[in-house]
Amino acid sequence: MTKVVALAGGVGGAKLVYGLAKILPKEDLTVIVNTGDDFVHFGLNISPDLDTVMYNLAEISNEQTGWGRLNETWNCFEELEKMKSDNWFRLGDRDLATHLERTKLLNSGLNLSEATTVLCKKLGVETVIKPMSDETIQTIVTTQEYGDLPFQEYFVKHHFEPRYISHRFFGIYSAKINADTRKIIHDADIVIICPSNPWLSILPILAVEDMKQLISSKVCVAVSPIVGNRALKGPAAKMFHEMNIKPSAFEVAKIYQGMIDGFVLDNLNSSECDLIRACGIIPMLTDTILKDKYSKERLAKEVFDFASQLKKGN
Ligand code: FO1
């Protein structure tokens, strides 16, 4: 059986993960998720990307927002608004239960991997989901207007409007890969990099300890989060502009050059295939816009079949 490890951030990544979970036996798929977006809010440990992946796999995610729970109610949040408390990060009532339970599990001495396993079990998720590390890693975005901002303040509080200058992953040098996660990567045949923001969602995962080296012996395929010259969600295209780079799928492939063997890009980016090939990466064109569960499953199958035909260093 082919063992697959998927690297994912939040909304875009979770959609492909959903498709992969539909087409692969549950014992053959592990998802390693970015935790650089994690933060403590009202004393609660919030792991937005872990939750987005978990809710998608449990089929209880809010398809409109891409984050949070389906059929959410907002009683707690509305009371906080009446109290003129912090209201920039919307926590729904059902979603709050996850953060309360995670905080309780972590306070009882479990690490984040163990707490995630417990939460997945409680929500009926059978796919193995692992945080990129059990240690705290905080993505800090340096902006022109506000200087350093913790990721959620940049992304949610300021709607990624401030001009991006640079970013760093605070805590990355002492962070370790969990021993179980290390073994899973060691045993994997294929690594799939989901269509998430390369700098803010995927590079933090690859920056943990020797993650890049562990993955380097596997067949690795990435899926572009840029379609045409736009990101379907989040600040990726805006960040390219602010780095004075024209956003394109090719520019994303270049970020992963040396690590990936294949790159999946949207039909709209067909003119970039030759440039990608010239980087020693095999391109595959398809429709990468994920509208519903059928398109998620279809793309997952195409990506898996493509990766299965590739050899390391083609
Ligand atoms: N994103 C928003 O744009 N606004 C919110 O109020 C918000 C709340 C929120 C609550 C729980 C959660 O798990 C995620 C939430 N997100 C929200 C999404 C999240 O912050 C980002 O999409 C990710 O961190 C980027 O991957």
Give structural notes.
With 314 residues, the chain is α/β, with parallel strands linked by helices. It has a single domain, classed as CofD-like domains (Rossmann fold, 3-Layer(aba) Sandwich), CATH 3.40.50. Helix content is 39%, strand content 19%. The strands form four sheets. A seven-stranded parallel beta sheet has the order 5-2-1-9-10-13-14, sandwiched between helices. The longest helix has 17 residues, at 293-309. The protein is globular, with a radius of gyration of 19 Å. The model has no long low-confidence stretch (mean pLDDT 96). It binds ligand FO1. Ligand FO1 binds next to helix 2 and helix 6. Residues 9-11, 37, 48-49, 51, 67-68, 89-91, 95, 152, 155-156 line the site of ligand FO1.
Distinctive features:
seven-stranded parallel sheet, 314 residues, three-stranded antiparallel sheet, Rossmann fold, binds ligand FO1, globular, 13 helices, 39% helix
Shape: globular
| Number of E-type strands | 14
Low-pLDDT stretches: none
Approximate helicity band: 25-40%
**What fold name stands as the CATH topology?**
Rossmann fold
Radius of gyration: 19 Å
Brief rundown of the structure:
Helix 1 links the parallel strand 1 and strand 2. By secondary structure, this protein is an alpha/beta fold. Helices cover 39% and strands 19% of the residues.
